[in-house]
Amino acid sequence: MALTLWIALGGAIGAVLRHALNIGIAKVAGSNFPWHTMLINISGSFVMGLLISLMALRWNVSNELKVFLTTGILGGYTTFSAFSLDFALLVERKAYALAGVYALGSVVLSLVAIFAGMALARAFA
Fold first, then answer.
1. Are 1 and 59 in contact (CB under 8 A)?
2. In a domain, 117, yes or no
3. Per residue in 46-87, pLDDT tens?
């Protein structure tokens, strides 16, 4: 139960941070292109790589801190960081074909799913 609370706390922090950056980036860059989402996904992926490596190679941290930072904060900030980590782990294991299938499948099927959900909602609206 304690891990769940750490994840929830981190998720709340990450979601609030994402919201604040969405607003701030949109004010600076405008809203004609989703710069805010792109920059959040890129920065979240960078921080995920940094944290995972430091926690594996240099820092001796508790499982609570790991899930607070990764699943919690970065999960609330962006789920794209988890996608990026999964892809990187497949590449690190030299499972290149699986990594390609995972990346292409995740992006394409997610896009298909959003349009399917929109169509279903419109059918019942």
1. no
2. no
3. 999 999 999 999 899 999 999 999 999 999 998 788 899 899
